[in-house]
Amino acid sequence: MKPRRETRGKHADHLIEFKESPQKGVGVFAKANIPRGTRIISEQALLKVDLEAVTLKNIVPAFERLSPAQQESYLQLHEYERDLLKVAVRYDVGKSWQELPELHRKVLSIYAANAFGCVFFLGSRINHSCIPNVNFVYNELLKEETFHVIRDIMAGEELTVMYIDGINRTQSQR
């Protein structure tokens, strides 16, 4: 499954490909050997939220401000509906999960599964590992999130990032 090209992101087509990852949905894989330090993706956020005041109330309106093509791209992303999200909806939105329209539940579930603060269409395709081989950081000069390989990657290897701050956490906590 290739990402739609309506996104503004750039990626190293000659180095990476998007394909099914066993038990993880879509993932990013090396098409060739990739040396440490290589930028593989650079993109603006698909879904932006105010990171100073992010609540579940902000996410659906942010989605509704997207163009129809961007909404379509967003809705292609993996969703993850968990009990903690349902409790947070009750707290932040004041409604039960089932009281929300189906589209709103989908938008929130996608955000819960893909947010790096904001949601990045290409970057969201990179799966999690507690021992990642890719790091991501916002590049102020480019005004984009950039994803760089942090160790040499072999052709065929899946690229991974750490979704959470793993510092001072045990493996079971991560």
UniProtKB/TrEMBL annotation:
Pfam families assigned: SET
CDD domains in alphabetical order: SET_SMYD
Residue ranges constituting the SET domain according to the UniProt record: 14-164
Membrane spanning residue stretches: none
The organism's place on the tree of life at top rank: Eukaryota
SUPFAM superfamilies in alphabetical order: SET domain
Listed InterPro entries: SET_dom, SET_dom_sf, SET_domain_protein
Name of the protein described by the UniProt record: SET domain-containing protein
Species the sequence originates in: Penicillium solitum
